[in-house]
Please model this.
Amino acid sequence: MWNVLVIAKREVSRFRTRFSGGSRALIVAVLVAALAVSFFVAQSGFTLSRGMYAVGVSPDGPAIDDSRFSVFVMSPEAGYSGLQAKTIDAYVNADMVIGRSDSRSQYAQGALKQYLDNRELNRIIEQYDIDRGFPLRIETHYIAVNASQQQPGGSIIDTASIADIIGPIIEPEPDFTGEPTPVPGGVPATPVETTTDPAVRAQLEAAKNGSAGRFKAEMVADNETLIPSLYQPSVPLPQVILAFVYIVPIFFISVFFTSSFMDEKTNRKLNILMSTPVSAFDIIMGKMLPYLVFSVAVIVGVTLFLGGNLLFAIAIFTPVMLFIFAIYLMVALFYRTYKDQTFFSMAAITFVTGYLVFPALFTGMSNLSYISPLTLAVEMYRNVPFGPTGLMAYALSTGPLYLVFAIALFVGVRIFNEEYLMGYGRLHQKLGDAVYLSLNKNHPYVSVGLLSLLLIPVVFVVELIILALVTNLQQIFTMLIVLLFFSALVEEIAKSAGIAALIEYGKAVTARRVLALSFVSALAFWGGEKLLLMASIGFMPASAVLDTLNGASGTAASPLMLVFLLLLPLAGHFVFSTIVCLGTLKLGTRYYIVALLAGTLVHVLYNVYNLRAMGAF
Amino acid sequence: MGTFMAIVDKEIRAVARERTILLAIVIQLIIASLSSVILFGLMSFYDPATIGQNTAVPVKVGVVGDGDSQLINYLQRSRVTTLLYDSADAAQADFVKGSVDAVIYIPPVAAGVSEMKLFLPQSDSKSTVVLMVLQTPLKKYENYLRGLNGVEVRYQDTRGRSSTTYEFLYSFIVPMLMLFPAFIAGSIMIDTLSEEFENKTLDTLLSTPVSMNTMIGAKLAAAELIAVLQCILWSILLSFNRIYIQNVLLVLVLAAIIAAFVAAGSALIALYFKDRERSQFLYSVLLITVASLSYMFNPSPITLMTRLASGDPGVGVVNVLIYLLPLAILMIALFTGTRKLAALKA
Model:
């Protein structure tokens, strides 16, 4: 522990000398300028689609104060000819919007409608009292549909009867024609205060402040009054913003960490460190510690700035931070050239951001969103109480992140030798070596099994990214096949990586041993997968997607059937892994990719068969 | 010229050999996919107008109370199935069974305030969908009630398509895909230059008949070429997805100018600092700053990209060529100052 601190201290002083003299002044100046400019632009209202539409307005038309529109005041004649000549996209003649039928003009009219509707709303707010301006109030109640369903936050189910809530049903008068005549002067001169008036006022206030309701729940809460024109479901923007506000500074800091690592690698200073009695763990942790401390400081700072709960924020973002550092540690250890490092870092940023943001977008809509810890942060900022399911959600969302950090640290320590760090091999070679070095050669079975088990979170993350990628494909069928292929490929790599490394180094030469190793690997992967499934089923009743993906349908007729349904995937995993590993043994590791593709192909066929049986094709 | 091409060739080969460029392309693909998933999946979810246009989500609503209400008319027009119930208990029975997705109590219409009650299932996603689908008819009914109260709402007849996707596509996805290559070009410049400094290979290179400016020019050309190729690739891939960039040539020229600007700027940074750590950091920060600063121009490079790509009649060749001026200034500064800058100790 002492050694870690000594190295950390050295790292801090190294960092300080890096940014001393003239360069410090320059960098500080640029940073200040960056902050000032960003602040200024953010203050003056930032729109990406500024001036996107060219809109003509008649002299008696509305003033259009929206930066998306380039507005030209012109007479109706000029407007019509402009529309025809396509020099403008839409024309507002007094109270009427006119356009062409081509898509650009249609979108321009849609955008105008959105703007003008809002403008009308503001006019109504200003000109009329709330009873006339907002005559429709809808009280929302959530009723349990069946007993097994539970509210995301674990709140109490409203079991009240609809009849009780409605009270006496008021029927329309028998002679009522259904079309009341409009009251020219409006409602009676003395408006009566209704029970829903305070709700309208509160929502008007919130609409006026705009940003104040940014972290407000997007769903209407129980017993809340809904006013249609004031009901604005928040777009998933807060999640994205929240992710960036926390993660971007951590990325910047971790870039310094990798740069420092690489610098010392190139200048061979690491060699000197390695020749001293300090352990690899000491060196890695020592070099990482200062940057970890900076990052925690950033988390604290951002939370204080946003007014969040400090304890929760630290609990939520510390694993995220560790996850990012884990990836960057791997980058620093594997890298061969600077370009490598740059691109790996960029890839890491996109992966991590996608992994965090994508599930969190479903916050409050699906419990699947708890895959990402960002969901918890979003809920924290929305003041959703941290219920008993919260702990489970925390474990589920942050568990894989802690695990990835632990794996990275472990692998880092194992491969921390001069030969490996200085070597310049092909990337797959370096990865294979890393896997080989991480395995305990005295206990190959335990090592291979553990590797398969521990790679499950990684496989999970990669599959999620693949899912997002395949949505680009237009055809559902191609999409499904591509998804199945790449998911199978990733799983087969995860299961066979350790065994292939053992074969490469002559630690597994007999078919029998490879067979046994394949079984262990398949067993561990299958076990982990089912464990994850079980944990998530208990937690996510709606995770039908997971069921489908895993091919285990829960409606088994008999216990025997259940055993069969459980063991079939195990047998499958074993067969696929055997194809890959035995193939690698026979053909040699040079042809690992061939064996891998063969195993993947069988895996895909098996999945397609399963899905067919379930009627997916 | 021979040496120049040799260096260009070497740089491109280095990038191709490392396969890093593939990684870069995958990154852009991921960003674009994630963004479009977010958009097409969720915005349509949040944007009821899009739901009405694209998907017919079958929603059944049980109605208790005024069966002649105008709201029922609006609901049906939004393709919501309505079922009339005599009593709340009957409605609840069907609701619990799941044969209706929501129950709504409509009091008889009267001037003044109308207080309805809406019952939604306590499931995490179903009620969100129902609420989204109900939003448009409820807003129409609200305007109808306003009319009864003597409040006239204008522009109700405005037609047109929901522009959210369109705006997002052309103001985010397209500029992102066209500008990310520029970002990569800058990164490549910093990496390749600082590598020469840190590995002390620059002296060796300069001892041959290669001048400093040839070397930098060649590296710039290589980075620029890679960037332009990526932009062309994106415009082709986008058209496969039936997203068409208007004024495609002008868009590519603009992207090329920006890539050259960023690459030249990053060359200046790398020449001054001579190490990757500080150069990359300053480059990232400066890039954000310059991008923010450019927003103060109208049209800014990014919005110009948006407007060109979406076919705005108001922008054209002149708007693009203006940006050659700052590029020329930066290039002159770079090529007249290389030796001095390289000699400076940062």
About this structure: Chain B is about 70% helix and 10% strand. The domain at 48-148 of chain B is CATH 3.40.190.10 (D-Maltodextrin-Binding Protein; domain 2). Chain B has two domains: 2-41+163-343, 48-148. Chain B touches chain A through 133 residues (CB under 8 Å).
